[in-house]
Amino acid sequence: MTAIYGVPLQALFGQLLLGLINGSFYAVLSLGLAIIFGLLNNINFAHGAQYMMGAFAAWMLLNYAGLGFWWALILAPLLVGLFGIVLERVLISRLYRLDHLYGFLLTFGLALILQGIFQSKYGVSGLAYAIPGELAGGQRLPFMFLPNYRVFVIVASLAVCLSVWLAIEKTMLGAYLRAATENPALVAAFGVNVPLLLTLTYGGGVALAAFAGVLAAPIYSVNPNMGADIIIVVFAVVVIGGMGSILGSVVTGYALGLVEGLTKVFYPEGSATVIYVIMALVLLIKPAGLFGRTN
Fold this sequence. Notes:
By secondary structure, the chain is mainly α. It has one domain (about 5-115, about 145-285): ABC transporter involved in vitamin B12 uptake, BtuC (Orthogonal Bundle), CATH 1.10.3470. Helices cover about 70% and strands about 5% of the residues. It is globular, with a radius of gyration of 19 Å.
């Protein structure tokens, strides 16, 4: 069999690979969003801008400091995460007791400011970032060509998502984080520095966005609008999975990436809206999301 419903196998598997790659970015970004919302009760609309900052940090490390992709994969999330820590301490921590709308408006404004700063400095045409030499080329399979870097993106994203989920759900640190969101006074009574814990949590969520940005830099051009192009889709992923659900964000991110890829094969006209249609259906049937908890 060389085709399914008239679609060549090469095109089908190519779109499935593209769907897995997009799903990898959706999963890592929505994971960071879910951590920040689930543990800090903050809707971080600046997440897309922080993803963009991760890509630019990788580009700057290469062009200004001569540090390649592997260094950027470590340093860019740390640098952008540190920026997130300062941001949380100076601005976001003041809004925890207020309505979610205030946090949303603040981070939305921050996203516009960050995007505008990078646009004024680097323009909007995009900057090239080369695939690391160790991951250049690919494997010739019977039904498709499999680029090495794309496989690395999928594997690295899965490894990070699994590690973060295990850290939050199966370790003492994760237990402290979950307890601090439910009863911070009780956790503080045990000698835990709750404000520091929340600050580091926000920084960790921002670092995840930056990590996704570094992975995206060799695939997409590094440009100030790259975060704005993906953040709405990522919010839809988080809503479908369940606001604050760590596992829901990861599973839904990969699943919707595959659905989007298949839609491009069998019904290309609907590929741009299929995620939003699914979101509307899920909200009608289960408003808390597929993995969300109803109070």
